[in-house]
Design goal:
Elements: E1 13-17, E2 25-27, E3 31-35, E4 40-45, E5 58-64, E6 67-73, H1 87-92, E7 97-102, E8 110-123, E9 131-144
Antiparallel strand pairs: 1-2, 1-7, 3-6, 4-5, 6-9, 7-8, 8-9
Amino acid sequence: MPVSAAVNAFGTLLKIGDGGGGEVFTTIAEVQNISGPSLSLEMIDVTNHSSTAGWKERIGGLLDGGEVTFDINFQPTASTHSYSAGLVKDMVNRTKRNFKIVFPDGSSTTWTFSAFVSKFQSKAPVNGQLSASISLMITGQPTLA
């Protein structure tokens, strides 16, 4: 019977670059669930009057790196979260940053990509922790290595 090679996702890190020469990446504090990148291929409809038996025909168009979304335990004064230095500031200033998702697979497999913070939604429930949901809109080609 085959044994699964599944990897436990606990310990995955999301890091943000400082934009400097010899860029330094800092782990974003208190990240919970991470989704993405959500890669897609735009399909272009090229159906014409000569298409075989009236079936739609398509060709591949532009590739899209999509989004990375994640949740955090929001710490308003944490350097990677704050309005003065973190994700909120980057969104307000329309700052493009480099990011890395580092998987705990024993090989340090990473997704690297450039992105803008496109959404920052904080949540403050009556009975629960202060949290936030963030979206990163990827620009250009993400790399899995």
